[in-house]
Design a protein that fits this description.
Largest sheet of chain A: 8 strands, parallel, barrel
Number of strands of chain A: 10
Strand content of chain A: 5-15%
Radius of gyration of chain A: 18 Å
Distance between the termini of chain A: 32 Å
Family (chains A, B): Belongs to the DapA family.
Order of helices and strands of chain A: EEEHEHEHEHEHHEHEHEHHHHH
Keywords (chains A, B): Lyase
GO molecular function (chains A, B): 4-hydroxy-tetrahydrodipicolinate synthase activity
Number of helices of chain A: 13
CATH architecture of chain A: Alpha-Beta Barrel
Number of domains of chain A: 1
CATH superfamily of chain A: Aldolase class I
Oligomer: homodimer
CATH class of chain A: Alpha Beta
Helix content of chain A: 40-55%
Structural class of chain A: alpha/beta
Organism (chains A, B): Brevibacterium aurantiacum
Protein name (chains A, B): Dihydrodipicolinate synthase family protein
CATH topology of chain A: TIM Barrel
Amino acid sequence: MTLFTGLSAFPLTPIRDEEIDEAAYAGLIQRLVTAGVDSITALGSTGSYAYLTAEERARVARMTVEHAAGIPVFVGIGALRTREVMANVRSAEAAGAQGLLLAPVSYQQLSTDDVFELFRTVTSATDLPIVVYDNPGTTHFTFTLDLYARLAELEGVDSIKIPGQAMSPPDFSAHVERIRAATGNQVTIGISGDAFGAAGLNAGCDAWYTAVGGTLPTPMLAITRAAQNGEADRASELSAELQPLWDLFSEFSGSLRVTAAIAEHLGLVAPHSLPLPILGLTDAQKRKVAEVVATLNLD
Amino acid sequence: MTLFTGLSAFPLTPIRDEEIDEAAYAGLIQRLVTAGVDSITALGSTGSYAYLTAEERARVARMTVEHAAGIPVFVGIGALRTREVMANVRSAEAAGAQGLLLAPVSYQQLSTDDVFELFRTVTSATDLPIVVYDNPGTTHFTFTLDLYARLAELEGVDSIKIPGQAMSPPDFSAHVERIRAATGNQVTIGISGDAFGAAGLNAGCDAWYTAVGGTLPTPMLAITRAAQNGEADRASELSAELQPLWDLFSEFSGSLRVTAAIAEHLGLVAPHSLPLPILGLTDAQKRKVAEVVATLNLD
């Protein structure tokens, strides 16, 4: 279970002329290796997994392991259809992934039983450990504590990636404690929603599944290491210094478009790096992003 | 524009052992031909388009035209990525479709500009007329009147499929009138949400894009013809007689699972006809569906 602790960085999958920009992707992974992240999760929401073909996903999984220099790689396998999920499991296994990330992607609203059965099917078909990916903003599925508990009992479910939310420190600790009690300590708990990374770690989360940390690993590692060393105040301060970045996420509807704009601004990926129909930020919005990058000295 | 009027029936795409049940699908299309529907929309939400590969979608488009005996066929081309949408346009054209249905499917929340640009890209790349598919329950995108107006100005956008909602007859008429005013009479307006079909037609909608009518065309045609003949009360009465069916849709979270259960109960498709992870109704729920089918004499 220590596999799913610390900072797991979610790289973008940069697109160029509708194809994966493999050179840029390799560069993003090498950056994460240099920074010393604890693990890399390829093909998360930040990695645009839902927009790629099975073949593209297999290639990204292979490239990630190839460039990760031994750092554990987890691969997002979510898809609308169970049949596709299983194909992604096979390609992630073949690539040498050490873990899998599974979100209940939906078009038709899924029931709790649909989702449980999906996870049961996947866990019974692979030996790789699985992170339950709770991301209601994109999947439009709402997990309950009871479903967390049922999933944690499945052999192979080793971590839960919970959404971030604004809570006071005592409330956040109580929230994490409730999840831990419900899941009987059978899983690690990872926070997502980057603005809540420090608060989540300080509240007892074992991991930070960080979107922006896939592009800007160094400041996110500083927060993570402070929290891991018991320096909660220091972690909070470091996160507070990044408030202008978190504000961009709120203002521009989430982290993906902002993170892509940062990577484009820093020259890590080519312009228009998101898959259409997602146009990305407007020019005016990109200028605001560039200002924040300069002010905070992000690179 | 008369192409997009009257009853457009949305058949299921039945699944059997994870593959398309082609024999059952052909039977569903022949049923619609026999009933005399005005058009057939293949690969709508009811046709599980989002769950099928590009190749499967091409095959379904071809089969529909092949069995439609000259009845106009529209094909759903929506997909998460513009690249896939364009591939679906090409296969629908090759199949001989007379129209296209496009929903702004999302994983990352789409902006108004993302959606407008998607429709602009598609309309500029095909001569086939397009139905704008407004289905917030599955796409999680909310259209505004202003966006309707912008889309209606695109050459090739010929109809808008609006979601059903509970409104008084005068409010419903005013709602349709507002859309008509905003879109400058450049599109037909079609109601969806089957419980609201009669009310929508009575309120001035030109078309009924009906999910359950893809499986039970005869009662839905009776409602449509009554409304078209100006017999609003008769249309309302016929719809009211089906209230136990509409109640099942409310109770079992939408029309898809209920419609599939009806088709399975009537032997039109094999059991477990929906794509996993969608398990479909439970056995107890299926018994309730069978009771309603018997009570209402549906076949």
